[in-house]
Amino acid sequence: MYEKDGEKYFIVDGHLHFWDASPSNWVPGAEQYAKGWIECFHAYQSLGPKETHWPLDKFQKYTEADFERDVFEDGHVDVGIFQSTYLNGWYTDGFNTARKNAALAAKHPGRLITNGRWDPREGEAGLRQLEEDAKRYALKGVKLYTAEWYKGSRGWTLKQPEARPFLDKCVELGIKNIHVHKGPTIWPLDKDAFDVADVDYAATTYPELNFIVEHVGLPRIEDFCFMATQEPNVYAGLAVVLGGLMHARPRFFAKVMGELLFWVGEDKILFGSDYAIWEPKWQIEGFVDWDYPDDEFSDYPAVTTDTKKKILGLNAARLYGLEVPAGLGLREQAATR
């Protein structure tokens, strides 16, 4: 819980990782990709405040104690959601797996949610694994990485016929929250494999599922906004928007937030720190203090305390069925009681 000027905020961090990208986990023969991937991630960290930058060796493999301090003790996070990303072609034991995430989540009951993943290129074996993971981890969501390399393939889309059985299985299993990485690329992945167009197709086809577009399609912000405004089940995940822009590009950040608030609306935007690229503390504190810098942005919707409460936690709590503690809801609701 974060409190500022008498206002209390229920914080749900919708985009967390607990990864191992250390050299001991690099797949023999794929070292250049494993190394390049984590060094590209590390370069993104430089977009945050200087005092939050980590040395590369710590960034490659941080500890449980680092996570607990940065997320819970200093980071104000009440509930966090792990977004699992495997990258088995480059990392021997996976980059950020549901198994490892769930092991850490078990040490913090009620405070961490583990999301799974699937890849349609894995076929029947992948469907069986999704069923097993859903039972083992009580999955409420999955993270999809459409640009991941797999056996010579350098990406896939939600429009492919092979994706349909997996989306059908999510409906069957009650996995309603489909988080899709659609944002800045990380070397050596292909930028075009993160295009947002396939989300439009899937969201229309599966209205019973929620599609959370992680990183809001950057750099394709206009494409995402115009698509998300017509699809009631498409949501904006703010990971990278806050961490990558709020400090380093404040005016561009104001434009992106303004576009999201105008087209998508404050009820469909979810906070995510993208830890451990960036720590949640400065992002949450900065966003609570944030407003448009000047009148140039006056044609965008106003940002109220309730706007920030929704984005920082209440919207994600609704999607994941989380109970919001008394006193941490909206100001408007409190005033009518």
The CATH architecture would be Alpha-Beta Barrel
- Taken in chain order, the helices and strands follow as EEEHHHEHEHEHEHEHEHHEHHH
Radius of gyration: 19 Å
Q: What is the helix tally? A: 13
CATH 4th-level superfamily: Metal-dependent hydrolases
Question: Average pLDDT, to the nearest integer?
Answer: 96
Helix content range of the residues, please? Answer: 25-40%
The CATH C-level name is Alpha Beta
The CATH topology annotation reads as TIM Barrel
Q: In one word, what is the shape?
A: globular
Q: Any overview of this molecule?
A:
With 337 residues, the chain is α/β, with parallel strands linked by helices. The protein has a single domain, classed as Metal-dependent hydrolases (TIM Barrel, Alpha-Beta Barrel), CATH 3.20.20.140. The chain is 39% helix and 12% strand. The chain is built from 13 helices and 10 strands. The protein has helices at 31-45, 56-60, 64-73, 98-105, 123-137, 164-173, 197-205, 221-228, 241-246, 250-264, 280-289, 305-320, 331-336; strands at 2-4, 7-9, 12-16, 79-83, 112-115, 141-144, 177-181, 210-214, 234-237, 269-270. The protein has a 5-stranded parallel sheet. α5 packs parallel to α6 (164-173) and α8 packs parallel to α10 (250-264). The longest helix is centred in the last third of the chain and has 16 residues, at 305-320. It is globular.
Keywords:
3-stranded parallel β-sheet, 337 residues, globular, alpha/beta, 5-stranded parallel β-sheet, TIM Barrel, 39% helix
Q: How are the SSEs placed, and which strands pair?
A:
Elements: E1 2-4, E2 7-9, E3 12-16, H1 31-45, H2 56-60, H3 64-73, E4 79-83, H4 98-105, E5 112-115, H5 123-137, E6 141-144, H6 164-173, E7 177-181, H7 197-205, E8 210-214, H8 221-228, E9 234-237, H9 241-246, H10 250-264, E10 269-270, H11 280-289, H12 305-320, H13 331-336
Parallel strand pairs: 3-4, 4-5, 6-7, 7-8, 8-9, 9-10
Antiparallel strand pairs: 1-2
Helix pairs in contact: 5-6, 8-10
